[in-house]
Amino acid sequence: MEDDFDQDVLLDVRRLSVTFAGGVRALRGVSFQVRAGEVVALVGESGSGKSTSGLAVMGLIERDRGAEVSGEIRLRGKDGDEKEITGLSERELRALRGNDVAMIFQEPMSSLNPIYAIGSQICEAIRIHRSVSRAEAARDAREALDLLGIPNPDRCMVSYPHQLSGGMRQRVMIAMALACRPRMLIADEPTTALDVTIQAQIIAHLKRLQRQTGMAILFITHNLGLVAEIADRAMVMYAGEIVESGPVADIFGAPRMPYTRALLQSLPRLGVTRASGTRIEAIPGNVPSSARWPSGCAFHPRCRYVVAGRCDASEPMLEACDTGRHRVRCLRWRELEKVAS
Amino acid sequence: MRLEPRALLGWTIIAVAGAVAAAAPWIATHDPTQTGVMFLRGPSAVHLLGTDELGRDIFSRLVFGARTSLAIGFGASIVATVLGVPIGLMAGYVGGRLDLALVQLIDLFIALPSLVLALIITAMVGPSMQNLVLILGFVMWPTVARLVRGQALAVRTSVFVEAAVAVGGTSTWIIQRHIWPNIRRVVAAQFAITVAFAIFTSASLSFLGLGIPPPTPDWGGMVRGGFSYLALNPVMSLAPGAAVAASVLGFYLVGSSGEER
Amino acid sequence: MLTVVVRRLLLAVPNVILITVLLFFAVSGLLGSPAALMLGEDANRETIAELNASMGFDRPLIVQYLDWMGRALQGDFGRSYTTQERVADAILPRVLPTLELAFLAILVATLGATVLNSLAVGRRVVQPVIQILSVLGITMPNFMIGISLIFLFSVELGWLPSTGWSPWSDGVIAHFVHILMPVLTLSAFYFGSFSLVYRAEYEAVRRRLYVQVARAKGLSATGVSFKHVLPNSILPVITYIGISLGHLAGGAVVTESVFSVPGLGSLFVNAILGRDFPVMLAVSMFIIVGVVIANLLADLVYTLVNPQIRLD
After folding, report:
1. How far apart are CA B63 and CA B28, in angstroms?
2. Which domain holds residue C77?
3. Is residue A300 packed enough to be buried (19+ CB in 10 Å), middle (13-18) or exposed (0-12)?
4. Taking Cα atoms as reference points, which of B29, B62, B40, B68 lies closest to residue B222?
5. Which fold does the domain B5-20+50-259 belong to in CATH?
6. Which chain C residue's Cα is nearest to B251?
7. Domain endpoint, select from C42, C68, C87
8. Which of A221, A237, A230 is nearest to A278 (CA)?
């Protein structure tokens, strides 16, 4: 199956595990691919490991603070060469960050340095990777702001972060991330901190820019409503593992994993796109802690379809179902197909 | 109560200094003011730290000097606290124009060089023990007042004090029951720090020649006296200097670790 | 921006006037009769009264103050009781050494505290050492640091001259050889306090999201440290420089006395010990007004580097 799209795979993550100092296992053997020009959503509750995945692709997991990273992260750079991120030196990583892959973060209010003007912060991002004059960098920065529909880009260039609204700052962050035209963008909950109307605008801009530039986006969110709106494909994460993945239509139309079903049921109406911040909270219990890791399926303590002696005995594998692009990690998915529908 | 190492070191230094000051007559091997014919001798069995330019026993003067330093340190800190706490409480609790005026005054005083101020006043009124305590307390109260004001303001605007006002508590009752218990620890920590800097400043005054007049043993004065003989008998100035530094360190450590808790 | 500057300047004026009034009244009031001081204890009462009258000391203090202030503004601070030299002539050559000493001490302390702490964060051995040095810097009295340095580098090792001053005209190297220990002595306290202030802020700033954003742009760890973390962490240090200038003046007085630096501080101590009223008054005015002005400057620098205040 994977061979089908091997040629235009941009990001190929294989068996990625991350353990933080203190033994917290944030990722436990995650594998996924993102093709060029594709928008893939990474969905899950907080603590599921979705943000860690984004940081790992950026090479921003701080190994000097005792974090351990294993597995492979292959990224095809702008020059067409494939790079294996976990094996790169800090110097090589720096050349890659912001240039081949860029990231935007959840909190636009604190993502910008308060003491530098917007223009100089975008120019910095440009001049790290391209040896251009200040004037050229400033021109490109202004263009990037213009692209995000910022009303008065010249004025924005000389503004300081505290003079801009949250929505405007997030546009600036996107402009900054896209300034070097990366082929891959990691968006970590880019709209969570914003109010609903602004959220819709930012998503609209992201979609438009994605179409215009053909970049791929790894869209990290806990908001299923946004997934339906922006993504082609979705991957649901639970406790550091991918528990279900497939085209958005499959995930929303025929969810196989009980966890995904629970997530969808926590949405007011199934399959209807909602712009508002729909939170996932309807599932009883919490993501397991490293200290008390359940045996068998990691979700079984919270699962309503749990079968004693089976779900807590053996670990399920991620296996193909339906079309083959749809994959699920559940021991009982075949039986449950009938139960649910 | 578990002490962190910093605080433990601080308390140890204070305990040693306090014990030496209290038991000075028994610890000292000589009369600290008794001059002799053995000038500027190095350490020996008779004179543990040698003798000064008048033949006085340095070790004994060092031991008795602890009394002077601690007395001035504590005295000045008490004066600063007695002045600073009510003024700070008033500014922070009453607020309004009074606060504005007091803050202006406090900030003005804090910006002034306290050592220079202390030098001028000491030069005018003369350096007796009593004067030094009053002068150092006077130049140090603004720091205490500012701290107390900030704390009082924070506590006053907190929910439980607002609730107390709502049920009709009187000012005295609110200050006693709600504000004071909350700022007590901060005031205690600042007290220790004030002791530290009172010892620091009084030793500096003595070093400049405006300390307790001789022959009373006084660390800053001993450093001043020994400075001229640094090459001949370094212990004469280094030992009392180290004693000052250690005492300041002890009170500072206790105060600064108390602040953080 | 301009209104902020003007407002601060306007606020400083009454402060300066208030200080000069307090100082003048305190010094004159506490000192007693200057004529008696000049003539000595065995002078008879008539002579003292005569001299007081001839010098204007019998007038009300407020008149004397206005008179003194009026002359002072024209550069006339009277004559020294002891040397009969014009006070202005005694002060002027001593301003520069003090300013240079203070400036270099602040510079050394700021650079030392920011650079050392930026490099030391997270390092097991270096960080506690710098922390201990900081606490020692704060608690060691200047005279003890100075004497220890003299003992070590002049008496024991013989590397540096123990005291004295070498003007710029005698060569740059000689100048710095003489000023090295005074600068180190005076900077110790500031190194210590700036370290504590800076390190706390540095730790907080390091966790801000824009620091991670800067790394995500592809900036190196050192680049992030010095371009994004340091400039943000240094703001409270600038405020602290302003607050601590009073302490700096006191430290300079002691340091200049230890190393016989011909600055305002040693002039001040000599004037006090010699009860030289005009010199004492003029120098203390200089020092205190200088501290207030420098405090104002620190405020303005803070305003200039902090866009959140500058632009409001």
Report:
1. 6
2. 2-87
3. buried
4. B62
5. MetI-like fold (1.10.3720)
6. C139
7. C87
8. A221
Interface test with C, best of A90, A97, A106, A111 (most C CBs within 10 A): A111
Select from A58, A115, A163 the Cβ nearest to the Cβ of C216.
A58
| Residues 232 through 271 of chain C touching chain B, CB cutoff 8 Å | 243, 245-251, 253-254, 257-258, 268-269
Residue A196 and residue A189: Cα distance in Å, rounded?
A: 14
Stretch C79-101: mean pLDDT, rounded? 83
Q: Of C87, C120, C143, which one is at a domain's C-terminal end? A: C87
Of B113, B123, B209, the CB nearest to C287: B113
- Is the domain of C71 the same as that of C138? no
Predicted confidence (pLDDT) per residue in A148-179, tens digit: 888 888 899 999 888 888 888 888 998 888 88
Task: Please give the pLDDT value at position A179.
Answer: 86
- Give the model's pLDDT for residue C161: 77
C182/C276 same-domain check: yes
In this prediction the ipTM stands at: 0.82
Residue C10 within any structural domain of the chain: yes
CB contacts, 8 Å: A111 with chain C: 209-210, 213
Q: Could you tell me if C290 and C174 lie in one domain?
A: yes
CB within 8 Å of A114: residues ≥ 6 apart = A160, A161, A162, C210, C232, C307, C308
- Please tell me if residue C214 touches chain A, with a CB cutoff of 8 Å: yes
Specify whether C155 is located in the same domain as C232: yes
Distance separating alpha carbons of residues A288 and A285, to the nearest angstrom: 9
Q: C210 to chain A: which residues are within 8 Å by CB? A: 110-114
Strand partners, A97: A101
User: Mind telling me how many Å the CA of B125 is from chain C's nearest CA?
Assistant: 7
The verdict on C48 and C117 lying in the same domain is no
CA distance C230 to chain B (A): 24
Listed residue (A186, A197, A205, A220) closest to A277, CA to CA? A197
pLDDT tens digits along A251-269: 888 888 888 888 887 765 5
pLDDT at C108: 93
* CB-based contact B231 C19, cutoff 8 Å: no
Rounded Cα distance between C268 and C279, Å, is 7
What are the tokens at C132? Answer: 């201990």
CA distance A141 to A144: 5
C218–A96 CB contact, under 8 Å: yes
Asked whether the beta carbons of residue A102 and residue C215 sit closer than 8 angstroms, the reply is: no
> For residue B79, what pLDDT is reported?
94
Q: Are residues C217 and C143 in the same domain?
A: yes
Report pTM: 0.77
Query: According to the model, what pLDDT value does residue C118 have?
Result: 80
Q: Is residue C310 in some structural domain?
A: no
Domain count, chain C: 2
The contact set of A with C (CB < 8 A) is 58, 60, 90-91, 94-99, 102-103, 105, 107, 110-115, 117, 124-125, 128-129, 160, 162-163, 173, 176
CB nearest C30 (choices: B112, B124, B242) = B124
Query: What single-letter DSSP state applies at residue A69?
Result: E
In a domain, C166, yes or no: yes
Structural domain spans, chain B? 5-20+50-259
C253 with C133, same domain: the answer is yes
Question: C312 in a domain, yes or no?
Answer: no
CATH of the domain at C208: 1.10.3720.10
Residue position matching structure tokens 């704060």? C138
Sign of the four-CA dihedral A59, A60, A66, A68: negative
Reply yes or no on whether the pLDDT at A280 is more than 60.
no
Question: Do C19 and B108 meet the contact criterion of CB atoms below 8 Å apart?
Answer: yes
Same domain, C147 and C288: yes
Q: Which residues of chain B have pLDDT under 50?
A: 1, 261
User: Do B255 and B197 meet the contact criterion of CB atoms below 8 Å apart?
Assistant: no
Interface test with B, best of C31, C144, C272 (most B CBs within 10 A): C144
pLDDT given for residue A5 in this prediction:
45
